[in-house]
Each structure stands twice: as C-alpha cells, then as structure tokens.
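Anyone else keep sequences and structure tokens together like this?

Example one:
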Amino acid sequence: MLIVIGAVGHALAMAGSMAWEILWPLILGFTLSGVIQAVVRRERVTRWMSDDSPRSLSLASLLGAASSSCSYAAVALARALFRKGADFAAAMAFEVASTNLVIELGLVLAFVMGWQFTVAEFVGGPIMIVLVALGFRVWMRGKIADAARAQADKGIAGSMEGHAAMDMSVTGHGSFWQRLFSRRGMVAVSEFFVMDWAAVIRDIAIGLLIAGAFAAWVPKEWLQAVFFVKDPTAAFILGPLIGPLLAMVSFVCSVGNVPLAAVLWNGGISFGGVVSFIFADLIIIPIILIYRKYYGTAAAIRITAIFYGAMAIAGYLVELIFRPLGLVPTDRHRAITDASVTWNYTTWLNILFLCLAAALLIVFFRNGGGRMLRMMGGSPVGSHDDAHHHGASRDDASHEHSSEVRPTHDHASHARSGRSVKGSS
C-alpha cells in the first residue's frame, strides 16, 4: 500500500511541478488571445467561406486562429458555420486553426519544448488544412455531404455549445487601441480570458495528470522500444502514425496535450510523431462521438479518417522539411518532466501573471460573468437560428457586440446583462 501511495504521490508531484512551469505562459497566451478576440472585427464570415478555394481556406484559417477556441467549442463553431452556408472544408479549416494555430499553444510549446516545435506548429498547421481540404474535396461530396448537412441542421447538442454561441467581441467605431482600452474592451478581454480558461481547464488538468503518470511510472526504455529509437527509419515511419493514436486514447485536447508531448519526446518519439500528436486534439474519442451527433456516422468516420491522414502526412512533411535545415532538436530531455518549484524567474513570472489573472477575474465577475459561466454547456443553436436578439447597450450605443461569426441564443443575450448581442443566420 505504501508503494502505491508513494507512486501516486510521485505522479501527482510531477504533474504539479509541470503545472507550475507552464502557468505563466498559459496566462499570457490566454490574455493575448482574449485581446485579439475582443477587438478584432469579424463580419458575415460565411460569405467568405462559401467554397474551398485557397482564398476561402486562408480566410477561414485566419479567422479560426483569431477565435482561439477550446477543441469542443471549435467543433461546435464549425458546425454553426456549416449550417449557415459555409463550405464543409472551409468550416473544418476554421476548426483546425482555432485549436492548432493559436497564440497560447505556440507560447506553451516554445516554453516547454523549444521554439522549433512552435515553428513546426505554424508550418504544419497550414499543411494539414490543405490536406483536409483535399480530403473533403475527394471524399466528402454528393450524398454524404448532403446527409451531413441534414444531420447538422437538426441541431443536436454536442459539448460547449453555450461557449461556442457566445460572442463578446467589441465592434463599432474607433481604432484597435481605442476599443481595447475602453471599458467595454477591458470587460470583453476579461470575458474571453475567463471563458477560454474555463473551457480548457479540465483538459489541462487531465493532460498534466496523464503526463505526470507517464513520466513517473513508464520507464523510458519502454517508450524507446515502442518508438523504435534504435531504428531511425522505423521511427520516422511509425512516429506520425502512432502519435495521433496516442492522442485519441488520451482523451486530452487543446494545450493540455503539450506536457504529454514533452514526455513522449523524452521517450524517443520522432519529431514528426510529436507534431502529429499535438495536431490530433480534434480526433480524440469524445470529439469523434460529437462528430457522429453533428454529421451522422458515415460522415464522422470520414472526417476522422481525413483528419488522421492529414495529421500523419503533416508530421512526415514537417520532419522532411526541418531535418535538412538542421531544425530538428537533438536534446531528448525536456526539463518540465522533472522540474521543481524554486525561487527562480519562473516563480516571479507566475506571481506577476497570477496578479494579472486575478485582475481579469475581478473585472469578469463584477460585470455579470458568473451567469455566463453557468451557461457554458448551454443549448445548441436550434430553433433560435433565424431569430435576431437585441438588447440595450450599457454604454455608448455605438459600441455594440456582434455575433455574426458566432450564433447567439437567447440565454447568451440575457447573460450579458442587457449588452447588445445579435444572432445571425
């Protein structure tokens, strides 16, 4: 019994130290993401996503990266865009970008694993989006696409529907900085910050616990055998195939899989395998089940297969690009797996950014944020799709909130304490 308690304690201690090491990059990343989401204007994006042309895919990717959603909310947003007329492939490009091409993931990757992995994320992400678009063009056409749209129009609930339906962005007149530093702008930043944290905190916690257990209990020699460390050719071939499969069964998405990616890298998985593992947050088993609810069984199988193939191929291509350039790291010891809490720069930065987080929390709850948190699960956008909801603005009427990118339901309108919210279909 003492041995079991000691093993569990070791795993928890490692998970806790990992959490301490990545805390300030996470707070910084979500703050910057909140700034972008709060003040970047987004208007009627579905008309820009009506096909799978390079222009539509590029715009969908940029808007997705700016939206910075948790994986579950990203999946719900993609369905909402699809229902409102967006091309299926463009909606999926938005989904991929909103989880894999975002600031917080890049920052955590750079701090935990090194800048090469951040560069790999932003190189591999567009490659994956192009591959997904090609897969949808070949394999998601005709009757299967029509059946998927009919199923999507049923509005069956998935997860984080309420979060996906809320849009707190500040529109109206004024420059970027004027809108950001206005009272409405600061409130919007706090809302995006807290809501995004609330959406991913479970996955981050689970990811840290799994990574801590792996680091504490799984001998590195076992991982090296699984990843064929002694056979570089086999490691290159199998790494990007194994990476997404490990992600699928880990049930962890978003930035929560970065600590486990560090453990896998230390264990010997190939560079391309790490890249494909990080990208695979959109095919974990719970999300595959949501695809089945949203689009039907046949479409869910094809979406999963297309995503898996795109993730694996992107992993191969990234490694083939990076290796000749000398950008593949050789250090297989990422310190996060055995870090400890000491009085160093990490501790001071954590204290500084925890103060920032506390300030944003105070702004959030003083402006009625508690009701928004209670509605994060929410209801899917169904019978309200064709409705337009208007409310009285608390401040200057010229600063109104628009949700033309994100459909908004009645509950979100009430949660904003009279703030102007519009739902558009």
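And example two:
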Amino acid sequence: MFPKLVIWPELLYSSFNVTRLMETEGELSVQEIHAPNSICFGCGPANKEGLKIRSFPIKNGLEMKFLPSDEHQAFPGMVNGGIIGSLMDCHGNWTAAISIMEENNMNHPPCTVTASYSIKLRRPTPFGTELKITSEVIDLSEDRAKVSMTLSANEKICATGEGLFVAVKEGHPAYHRWN
C-alpha cells in the first residue's frame, strides 16, 4: 500500500531549512516532503517549539522514532501522557493521509484531520529512551481511514491507540494547513 515516496525538487527547497535536510542525510519524512511549512505542534517541521515528529513508510503503515526532551516528562523519569497523545495523534493522521493518497492515486496527500482517537496507556512510558510508534490502516475509504497505533519503549508496549482521520474539503479551516 505504501510504495517508495516520490520527492519533488520544488518541495525540497521551498522555504525549507536546507541545514535540516543535511542533518537527515537525505532521508526525508512524509512531513518534510509533503508539509515542510506546517506549524502543527506535533508534526510541523516549521514549528520551532514543536515535537517535529518524522514518520516513514513501512509495510501497511508508517513508523516513527522519538527521543523525548526534559520538558516532555510528567514527573522525573516518565513521559507525559499528553505528549504521548500528541505523538500518536499526529502519526496516525499522517498514516491516514498517506494511505488515502496512495489508495486514490493522488500526487499529494489530502489534508486530514482527527475525527476521533483513543489511547490506552498500558504501562508508564520511560523517559531517556527512544520511543517507537508504528501504525497501520485497519479500514480505508475514499476520504477517511481508521488507524491503529502502538507506542513502545525498550521493546515493551507502553500505549496503544486507534483513530479515525478524515480528509477535509475546500472551505474547511484546516484545508490549506499543510501549505
């Protein structure tokens, strides 16, 4: 469902930080490819204070890795549940957008928004270790996708979630948010 992403040269350099491109050694996330100017707190590459998640295609979904900073703790040694929710929400949203794009043979992903999502915090998520979130589409239609997500740390599942993400049409306040 997720073939190799095409990188359009005009997107690579359109007001995108070239230094950050060099830091990634040419490996661009779906966010950097399709929404380099996004200011979303969770996934916006242009938000200096945001989480700047970076999602990459895997079989049937996306995968991301994230190393929390000190300010992402709920209490010493544990990641805040709100940060976990933001990571999973944005990652699930991008999973939906990319799958809708691929399913409908589109050149660019549609702008999708979260209709609903739920998270089950299964164990405390430790601070000081890399978090890994994988996602997969469990139901797909022309303009929406239901996505399941799993967050693990040290190869232990810390949280699971599910969300419904919907492509918005022109006139919706979020329609141009990735431009």
